[in-house]
Amino acid sequence: MSWSTALRAALGIALLTGMDAVMKGQMRQHPFALALFMRFAMGGLCALAVLAVARPARPTRDSVIGNLARVPLVVLTAGSFFYSISVLPLAEALTLSFLAPVFVALLGGLLLRERIDKRVLQALAFGLAGMLVMVWPRLQGHVSGAGLGVAAALFSAVSYAFNLVLLRRIAMREHPTVIVAFQNVGPALCLAVPAASLFEPIAPADLALYLFAGALGVAGHLTLTSAYARAAASRLAAIEYTALIWASLLGFHLFGEVPLYTTYLGALLIIAGAVAVSRR
To answer: Please, which domain of life does this record's source organism belong to (predicted)?
Structure first.
Protein backbone atom coordinates (compact mmCIF):
# COMPACT_ATOMS: atom_id res chain seq x y z
CA MET A 1 0.00 0.00 0.00
CA SER A 2 1.41 3.38 -1.02
CA TRP A 3 1.63 6.46 1.15
CA SER A 4 -0.75 8.28 -1.17
CA THR A 5 -3.42 5.62 -0.64
CA ALA A 6 -2.98 5.73 3.13
CA LEU A 7 -3.20 9.52 3.12
CA ARG A 8 -6.28 9.35 0.90
CA ALA A 9 -7.98 7.04 3.42
CA ALA A 10 -6.95 9.23 6.35
CA LEU A 11 -8.33 12.30 4.54
CA GLY A 12 -11.64 10.52 3.95
CA ILE A 13 -11.92 9.66 7.66
CA ALA A 14 -11.07 13.26 8.63
CA LEU A 15 -13.73 14.65 6.27
CA LEU A 16 -16.43 12.34 7.64
CA THR A 17 -15.51 13.12 11.25
CA GLY A 18 -15.67 16.81 10.40
CA MET A 19 -19.17 16.26 9.03
CA ASP A 20 -20.16 14.59 12.31
CA ALA A 21 -18.90 17.59 14.26
CA VAL A 22 -20.83 20.04 12.06
CA MET A 23 -24.01 18.01 12.50
CA LYS A 24 -23.55 17.81 16.26
CA GLY A 25 -23.54 21.60 16.36
CA GLN A 26 -26.54 21.92 14.03
CA MET A 27 -28.64 19.49 16.05
CA ARG A 28 -28.33 21.91 18.93
CA GLN A 29 -29.94 24.60 16.77
CA HIS A 30 -32.79 22.74 15.03
CA PRO A 31 -35.17 19.81 15.63
CA PHE A 32 -33.47 16.47 15.11
CA ALA A 33 -35.56 15.30 12.12
CA LEU A 34 -35.14 18.66 10.37
CA ALA A 35 -31.37 18.64 10.88
CA LEU A 36 -31.13 15.06 9.59
CA PHE A 37 -33.20 15.93 6.50
CA MET A 38 -31.07 18.99 5.76
CA ARG A 39 -27.88 16.97 5.97
CA PHE A 40 -29.15 14.49 3.36
CA ALA A 41 -30.83 17.13 1.20
CA MET A 42 -27.62 19.13 0.95
CA GLY A 43 -25.61 15.96 0.52
CA GLY A 44 -27.97 14.98 -2.27
CA LEU A 45 -27.37 18.28 -4.07
CA CYS A 46 -23.61 17.77 -3.83
CA ALA A 47 -23.85 14.12 -4.91
CA LEU A 48 -26.00 14.97 -7.94
CA ALA A 49 -23.53 17.69 -8.93
CA VAL A 50 -20.68 15.17 -8.81
CA LEU A 51 -22.83 12.66 -10.73
CA ALA A 52 -23.46 15.24 -13.48
CA VAL A 53 -19.72 15.81 -13.85
CA ALA A 54 -18.68 12.13 -13.67
CA ARG A 55 -21.46 10.94 -16.02
CA PRO A 56 -21.20 7.22 -15.12
CA ALA A 57 -23.07 4.50 -16.99
CA ARG A 58 -26.80 4.22 -16.29
CA PRO A 59 -27.36 1.88 -13.30
CA THR A 60 -28.86 -1.51 -14.06
CA ARG A 61 -32.21 -2.67 -12.72
CA ASP A 62 -30.49 -4.89 -10.14
CA SER A 63 -28.32 -1.97 -9.04
CA VAL A 64 -31.34 0.30 -8.58
CA ILE A 65 -33.11 -2.36 -6.51
CA GLY A 66 -30.00 -2.96 -4.39
CA ASN A 67 -29.41 0.74 -3.78
CA LEU A 68 -33.07 1.38 -2.93
CA ALA A 69 -33.03 -1.52 -0.48
CA ARG A 70 -30.21 0.21 1.40
CA VAL A 71 -32.05 3.52 1.80
CA PRO A 72 -34.08 2.58 4.93
CA LEU A 73 -30.91 1.19 6.51
CA VAL A 74 -29.02 4.40 5.72
CA VAL A 75 -31.80 6.39 7.42
CA LEU A 76 -31.74 4.12 10.49
CA THR A 77 -27.94 4.10 10.67
CA ALA A 78 -27.51 7.85 10.27
CA GLY A 79 -30.47 8.69 12.48
CA SER A 80 -29.30 6.54 15.38
CA PHE A 81 -25.67 7.64 15.01
CA PHE A 82 -26.46 11.35 14.82
CA TYR A 83 -28.76 11.00 17.82
CA SER A 84 -25.92 9.35 19.74
CA ILE A 85 -23.48 12.19 18.99
CA SER A 86 -26.15 14.71 20.04
CA VAL A 87 -26.16 13.31 23.60
CA LEU A 88 -22.73 11.68 23.93
CA PRO A 89 -19.22 13.10 23.57
CA LEU A 90 -18.18 12.82 19.93
CA ALA A 91 -15.22 10.55 20.75
CA GLU A 92 -17.35 8.15 22.77
CA ALA A 93 -20.05 7.78 20.11
CA LEU A 94 -17.46 7.22 17.38
CA THR A 95 -15.62 4.62 19.45
CA LEU A 96 -18.80 2.60 19.94
CA SER A 97 -19.24 2.66 16.16
CA PHE A 98 -15.92 0.80 15.86
CA LEU A 99 -17.85 -2.35 16.80
CA ALA A 100 -19.28 -2.39 13.26
CA PRO A 101 -16.50 -4.58 11.70
CA VAL A 102 -17.20 -7.28 14.30
CA PHE A 103 -20.91 -7.20 13.51
CA VAL A 104 -20.09 -7.28 9.76
CA ALA A 105 -18.13 -10.50 10.26
CA LEU A 106 -20.97 -12.04 12.26
CA LEU A 107 -23.64 -10.98 9.77
CA GLY A 108 -21.49 -12.13 6.87
CA GLY A 109 -21.50 -15.57 8.43
CA LEU A 110 -25.22 -15.56 9.12
CA LEU A 111 -26.47 -13.96 5.89
CA LEU A 112 -23.76 -14.72 3.32
CA ARG A 113 -22.59 -18.02 4.84
CA GLU A 114 -19.05 -16.74 5.23
CA ARG A 115 -16.85 -18.66 7.63
CA ILE A 116 -16.97 -17.55 11.27
CA ASP A 117 -13.71 -18.63 12.86
CA LYS A 118 -12.29 -18.34 16.34
CA ARG A 119 -10.91 -14.85 15.65
CA VAL A 120 -14.41 -13.50 15.05
CA LEU A 121 -15.58 -14.81 18.42
CA GLN A 122 -12.46 -13.42 20.09
CA ALA A 123 -13.07 -10.06 18.42
CA LEU A 124 -16.66 -10.09 19.66
CA ALA A 125 -15.42 -10.75 23.20
CA PHE A 126 -12.90 -7.88 22.96
CA GLY A 127 -15.57 -5.58 21.54
CA LEU A 128 -18.11 -6.36 24.23
CA ALA A 129 -15.46 -5.94 26.93
CA GLY A 130 -14.48 -2.57 25.48
CA MET A 131 -18.10 -1.48 25.34
CA LEU A 132 -18.64 -2.42 28.99
CA VAL A 133 -15.50 -0.52 30.04
CA MET A 134 -16.78 2.57 28.21
CA VAL A 135 -20.33 2.53 29.56
CA TRP A 136 -19.45 1.35 33.09
CA PRO A 137 -19.38 4.89 34.56
CA ARG A 138 -22.88 5.45 33.18
CA LEU A 139 -24.12 2.16 34.59
CA GLN A 140 -22.73 3.18 37.97
CA GLY A 141 -24.43 6.56 37.79
CA HIS A 142 -21.14 8.48 37.70
CA VAL A 143 -22.20 10.15 34.45
CA SER A 144 -25.76 11.40 34.25
CA GLY A 145 -28.15 10.57 31.40
CA ALA A 146 -27.19 9.60 27.86
CA GLY A 147 -28.28 5.97 28.29
CA LEU A 148 -30.30 6.24 25.09
CA GLY A 149 -27.24 7.68 23.38
CA VAL A 150 -25.24 4.52 24.13
CA ALA A 151 -28.11 2.34 22.90
CA ALA A 152 -28.40 4.45 19.73
CA ALA A 153 -24.66 4.17 19.02
CA LEU A 154 -24.80 0.38 19.38
CA PHE A 155 -27.90 0.16 17.19
CA SER A 156 -26.13 2.30 14.61
CA ALA A 157 -23.15 -0.08 14.58
CA VAL A 158 -25.45 -3.07 13.97
CA SER A 159 -27.49 -1.36 11.23
CA TYR A 160 -24.28 -0.07 9.62
CA ALA A 161 -23.03 -3.66 9.52
CA PHE A 162 -26.24 -4.74 7.75
CA ASN A 163 -25.70 -1.84 5.36
CA LEU A 164 -22.16 -2.95 4.52
CA VAL A 165 -23.25 -6.53 3.94
CA LEU A 166 -25.82 -5.29 1.38
CA LEU A 167 -23.25 -2.91 -0.11
CA ARG A 168 -20.92 -5.82 -0.87
CA ARG A 169 -23.38 -7.06 -3.47
CA ILE A 170 -23.37 -3.85 -5.52
CA ALA A 171 -20.09 -2.04 -4.77
CA MET A 172 -17.97 -4.12 -7.15
CA ARG A 173 -20.18 -3.47 -10.19
CA GLU A 174 -21.51 0.05 -9.61
CA HIS A 175 -19.84 3.45 -9.95
CA PRO A 176 -19.19 5.07 -6.53
CA THR A 177 -20.93 8.31 -7.52
CA VAL A 178 -24.15 6.40 -8.19
CA ILE A 179 -24.00 4.69 -4.79
CA VAL A 180 -23.31 7.98 -2.98
CA ALA A 181 -26.15 9.70 -4.86
CA PHE A 182 -28.64 7.01 -3.84
CA GLN A 183 -27.55 7.09 -0.19
CA ASN A 184 -28.09 10.86 -0.01
CA VAL A 185 -31.12 11.53 -2.22
CA GLY A 186 -33.06 8.48 -1.02
CA PRO A 187 -32.90 9.33 2.71
CA ALA A 188 -33.73 12.98 1.96
CA LEU A 189 -36.96 11.88 0.26
CA CYS A 190 -37.79 9.54 3.17
CA LEU A 191 -37.28 12.31 5.73
CA ALA A 192 -39.07 15.07 3.80
CA VAL A 193 -42.48 14.54 5.44
CA PRO A 194 -41.34 14.39 9.10
CA ALA A 195 -39.00 17.32 8.47
CA ALA A 196 -41.83 19.37 6.95
CA SER A 197 -43.93 18.88 10.09
CA LEU A 198 -41.10 20.38 12.16
CA PHE A 199 -40.06 23.06 9.69
CA GLU A 200 -38.80 26.37 11.02
CA PRO A 201 -36.95 29.20 9.31
CA ILE A 202 -33.27 28.43 8.77
CA ALA A 203 -30.78 31.28 8.74
CA PRO A 204 -28.44 31.61 5.74
CA ALA A 205 -25.45 30.79 7.96
CA ASP A 206 -27.10 27.54 9.03
CA LEU A 207 -27.94 26.68 5.42
CA ALA A 208 -24.28 27.17 4.58
CA LEU A 209 -23.29 24.84 7.43
CA TYR A 210 -25.70 22.15 6.24
CA LEU A 211 -24.30 22.50 2.72
CA PHE A 212 -20.80 22.21 4.21
CA ALA A 213 -21.83 19.04 6.08
CA GLY A 214 -23.33 17.57 2.91
CA ALA A 215 -20.18 18.37 0.94
CA LEU A 216 -17.96 16.86 3.64
CA GLY A 217 -20.05 13.69 3.65
CA VAL A 218 -19.98 13.24 -0.13
CA ALA A 219 -16.27 14.09 -0.37
CA GLY A 220 -15.45 11.79 2.53
CA HIS A 221 -17.31 8.80 1.08
CA LEU A 222 -15.85 9.28 -2.42
CA THR A 223 -12.32 9.71 -1.03
CA LEU A 224 -12.62 6.55 1.07
CA THR A 225 -14.07 4.63 -1.88
CA SER A 226 -11.10 5.72 -3.97
CA ALA A 227 -8.68 4.54 -1.29
CA TYR A 228 -10.37 1.15 -0.93
CA ALA A 229 -10.21 0.69 -4.70
CA ARG A 230 -6.40 0.91 -4.44
CA ALA A 231 -5.73 -1.31 -1.41
CA ALA A 232 -7.27 -4.23 0.43
CA ALA A 233 -9.69 -3.36 3.18
CA SER A 234 -7.55 -5.19 5.75
CA ARG A 235 -4.60 -2.93 4.90
CA LEU A 236 -6.63 0.22 5.49
CA ALA A 237 -8.64 -0.89 8.52
CA ALA A 238 -6.28 0.61 11.10
CA ILE A 239 -6.48 4.02 9.42
CA GLU A 240 -10.22 4.18 10.16
CA TYR A 241 -9.42 4.45 13.86
CA THR A 242 -7.77 7.83 13.32
CA ALA A 243 -11.38 9.05 13.61
CA LEU A 244 -10.93 8.84 17.38
CA ILE A 245 -8.11 11.42 17.19
CA TRP A 246 -10.20 13.83 15.12
CA ALA A 247 -13.28 13.27 17.27
CA SER A 248 -11.31 14.00 20.45
CA LEU A 249 -9.78 17.17 19.03
CA LEU A 250 -13.01 18.48 17.47
CA GLY A 251 -15.09 17.55 20.50
CA PHE A 252 -12.72 19.41 22.81
CA HIS A 253 -12.24 22.55 20.71
CA LEU A 254 -15.81 22.94 19.46
CA PHE A 255 -17.89 21.61 22.35
CA GLY A 256 -15.56 21.53 25.36
CA GLU A 257 -15.84 17.73 25.63
CA VAL A 258 -13.25 15.86 27.66
CA PRO A 259 -13.88 12.11 27.34
CA LEU A 260 -13.40 9.91 30.38
CA TYR A 261 -10.27 7.73 30.49
CA THR A 262 -12.59 4.72 30.18
CA THR A 263 -13.42 5.88 26.63
CA TYR A 264 -9.83 5.32 25.54
CA LEU A 265 -9.42 2.06 27.49
CA GLY A 266 -12.57 0.75 25.87
CA ALA A 267 -11.39 2.00 22.48
CA LEU A 268 -8.19 -0.06 22.77
CA LEU A 269 -10.19 -3.24 23.37
CA ILE A 270 -12.72 -2.53 20.60
CA ILE A 271 -10.00 -1.63 18.08
CA ALA A 272 -8.03 -4.77 19.00
CA GLY A 273 -11.08 -6.87 18.24
CA ALA A 274 -11.85 -5.05 14.99
CA VAL A 275 -8.26 -5.35 13.77
CA ALA A 276 -8.34 -9.10 14.51
CA VAL A 277 -11.42 -9.44 12.31
CA SER A 278 -9.93 -7.38 9.47
CA ARG A 279 -6.83 -9.64 9.39
CA ARG A 280 -8.70 -12.93 9.22
So the answer is: Bacteria
Both ends of the chain: CA-CA distance in Å?
18
Judge residue 143's burial from the number of C-beta atoms within 10 Å of its C-beta, 0-12 exposed, 13-18 middle, 19 or more buried: middle
Question: How many Å apart are CA 197 and CA 17, to the nearest integer?
Answer: 29
**pTM attached to this predicted model:** 0.84
Which residues have C-beta within 8 Å of that of residue 87, sequence separation ≥ 6?
145, 146, 148, 149, 152
DSSP label at residue 117: -
Per-residue pLDDT, averaged over 105-112, amounts to: 61
Residue bearing the bigger pLDDT, 149 or 252: 252
Instruction: Check if the beta carbon of residue 97 is closer than 8 Å to that of residue 156.
Output: yes
Measured between alpha carbons, how far is 175 from 113 in angstroms, rounded to an integer? 26
> What is the number of other CB atoms lying within 10 angstroms of the CB of residue 20?
24
Altogether, the residues listed in the chain come to a count of 280
Backbone angles phi, psi at 117, to 5 degrees: -100, -175
Residues 225-275: tens digit of each pLDDT: 888 767 665 566 667 778 888 999 999 999 998 877 888 888 888 777 766
